[in-house]
Write a structure and sequence with these properties.
Layout (H helix, E strand, L loop, with lengths): L2 H12 L5 E7 L3 H17 L2 E7 L4 H11 L4 E4 L3 H5 L1 H10 L4 E3 L11 E5 L1 H16 L12 E6 L4 H4 L2 H8 L5 E3 L7
Parallel strand pairs: 1-2, 1-3, 3-4, 4-5, 6-7
Antiparallel strand pairs: 5-6
Helix pairs in contact: 1-2
Length: 188
C-alpha cells in the first residue's frame, strides 16, 4: 500500500461517505506533481474523486479556497513542500472554519493544528541516519535501506481550529490507529 493510498484510506475511515478530496500541492515542483499523480491513481482505486488544486505562489491559495467554496470537497489532503508549509496556517484555518477534515504528510503538522497525518516515522529516520553516519565514520560501508515504519497521528488539541470539530471529531478519530498529540499550538 502506498502512502497516498493509506492517507486516503484513513480519510475514508474517518468519513465513510467520502467522495471528493481537495488536494493542495505545489504544481511548480515536479516532485510534488508526481506525488499528486500517485494520489490521483490511489483515489481512483478507492472510488474517490480528487479535486486538483495546484498552487505555485501564496496568492494561489485564495483561488484554491474559492474553488473549494464553489465545489465543496469532503476533505483536504495537503502535500508538504516549502510553499504549502509556509501557508499551512491558512489551510488549517480554512479547514477548521468549514469543518473539513484534512490529512497532512508529517506528524509535526498535527502538533501545529492539523487534524491528522500519515507518513514516514521521522524519528526512526533520524535515528537510522545517525547510526549510518557512525558506520561511515568508522570506515564501514553502510547498507542500502529504506524506512519501513510509518506513523499516523491525530491532534487532541482543542485550540480554535479543532474546537470547531468538537466531540464529533474526537468520536470519529478515536477508533483510528493513531498516535495522539497533546502539544497543539493552535490559536485560541
Amino acid at each position: 500500500m502506498t502512502l497516498s493510498t493509506k492517507r486516503l484510506s484513513l480519510l475514508k475511515e474517518l468519513l465513510p461517505q467520502l467522495r471528493r478530496v481537495a488536494m493542495l500541492w505545489n504544481k511548480g515542483d515536479r516532485g510534488m506533481s508526481l506525488r499528486y499523480d500517485a494520489s490521483a491513481v490511489a483515489a481512483r482505486e478507492l472510488g474517490i474523486i480528487i479535486q486538483p488544486l495546484g498552487v505555485s505562489e501564496p496568492d494561489d491559495f485564495i483561488k484554491a479556497f474559492d474553488t473549494m467554496n464553489r465545489e465543496r470537497p469532503d476533505a483536504i489532503l495537503m502535500v508538504s513542500d516549502s510553499l504549502t508549509l509556509r501557508n499551512r496556517r491558512r489551510v488549517f484555518e480554512y479547514a477548521a472554519e468549514r469543518r473539513l477534515p484534512a490529512i497532512y504528510e508529517t506528524d509535526s503538522l498535527t502538533r501545529e493544528c492539523g487534524l491528522m497525518s500519515y507518513g514516514p516515522d521521522r524519528r526512526e529516520i533520524f535515528e537510522r541516519s545517525a547510526a549510518l553516519v557512525d558506520r561511515i565514520f568508522k570506515g564501514t560501508k553502510p547498507p542500502t535501506c529504506r524506512s519501513s515504519s510509518r506513523r499516523a497521528s491525530c491532534s487532541r488539541s482543542i485550540g480554535k481550529p479543532q474546537r470547531r470539530w468538537g466531540s464529533t471529531y474526537r468520536t470519529h478519530c478515536s477508533h483510528l490507529p493513531m498516535r495522539w498529540s497533546n502539544k497543539g499550538t493552535c490559536p485560541t
